[in-house]
Amino acid sequence: MARALQRQGEFDLCLSLSRQSDLYDRFLELGISSLDIDTYTDIGSAMRSVMRLPRLRRAFARFLDEQGVDAVLCTMAHLWNPLFLDLIRSRNLPYVVTVHDAKLHPGEQFKPYQRWLDHEIGRSDGVVTLSRHVRTVLCARHVLREDAVITAPLGPLLNERLHPLPLDGRPPRRLVFFGRILEYKGVDLLLDAFAALLRDFPDITLSIHGSGNAAPYADRIAALPNITLDNRYIPENEIPAIMGKADLVVLPYREASQSGVIAMAQSCGVPVVVTPVGGLVEQVIDGETGLVASQVTADCLAASIRRMIEDGALYERCARGGVRHSASVWTEAAAEVSRLITRLSAERQRV
Fold it and tell me: Which residues form the Glycosyltransferase subfamily 4-like N-terminal domain (predicted)?
């Protein structure tokens, strides 16, 4: 988003960055003035970081004043965000927050954290959602101005074009699941679909990459051939290698807001197969950038994967279509965000 707004040229940007972000070095490459701070990486460092908050608040206040900030856009939820809102409010600056999830997913639900997020949303002037699905859920849970809640689609965090096309005559056989392993992600559905596909495609493989609790699936994984489990947090610099070895990225989710994995895979030229839930159906143009299974079942998931394996023309069309589609997403998203911030800033000046 920062790169797209910078390219657009409508605003003079400055950034507040965490040095612990996987994307920190990528932000520095933009050459934009920034306030760089240390946040935390685990519970221990989070507890220790509390002592730094008064000093960080003073540094943030100085940064707002020295940079002549006119509006603040928050692109990611963070426990510290609400603790800095009074500094923004006292300067009469519009605050726009990006909401990735209108409510926490199953397995992530922690009521105090949900209330903390809701508090931040309630004190914002505008909200950016990353799918129409999230916008609908958000507006049902909060009293918000309809014209101050926009949808700006999620673009890729990778820019690599990793996949050669065509596949040198080799049919797609390498399936990848990427992301945190949580119950709602439907790993069990994927394993059942994979077992069914093995009967007709004995050389098919499945790689599962991500942190989370894989124990419920351990016996099933051990009983099936051709599965690799990489059960750990995957740093951003390792993602290109994973995508480079994927023929298909599969998202067997039971529910979803939207997915950065889809945006990432499409930008790399890797077709996706997804279940018909949440914002996933907005991100995938069925038959053009990937396939949307007809139902959230292992059989329907396997049927869509089978189509992609057996239809070379479909596979190539989706691979090329994903790259083409992803090329313009950030530009479109930046335009939506720019219009919202410009309108809110004008309203604030009239008050």
Answer: 45-150
* Contact between residue 267 and residue 323 where contact means Cβ atoms under 8 Å apart: yes
Structural tokens at position 140: 């049902």
Give domain limits for the chain: 2-155+329-350, 174-326
Neighbours of 51 (CB within 10 A): 8
Other residues' Cβ atoms within 10 Å of the Cβ of residue 42: 7
Name residue 17's beta-bridge partners: 36
Please say whether the beta carbons of 157 and 260 come within 8 A.
Answer: yes
Q: Are 116 and 82 in contact (CB under 8 A)?
A: yes
Strand (E) or helix (H) holding 59: helix 53-67
**pTM, full prediction:** 0.89
Average pLDDT per block of 10 residues along the chain, 351 residues long: 92 94 89 92 81 93 97 90 94 95 73 82 94 94 90 81 56 94 96 98 98 96 98 92 94 96 94 98 97 98 98 94 92 96 87 58
CATH class of 174-326: alpha beta
- CB neighbour class for 88 (10 Å; exposed up to 12, middle 13-18, buried from 19): buried
According to the CATH classification, is domain 2-155+329-350 in 3.30.1330.30? no
Q: Are 253 and 186 in contact (CB under 8 A)?
A: yes
Helices (H), 73-122: 81-89, 111-122
Cα 308 vs. chain centroid, distance in angstroms? 24
Say what the pLDDT of residue 160 is: 52
Contact 329, 155 (CB under 8 A): yes
Could you say which DSSP state residue 255 is in?
S
Residues in the chain: 351
Confidence (pLDDT) at 322: 94
Which tokens sit at 234?
């995957």
Query: Of 313, 309, 322, 320, which is closest to residue 265 (Cα–Cα)?
Result: 322
pLDDT of residue 163: 52
| Residue carrying structure tokens 């931040």 | 120
Specify the pLDDT at position 164: 47
Q: What pLDDT, on the 0 to 100 scale, is given for residue 169?
A: 65
Phi, psi of 203 (to 5 degrees): -95, 5
**CA 14 to CA 323: how far, in whole Å?**
30
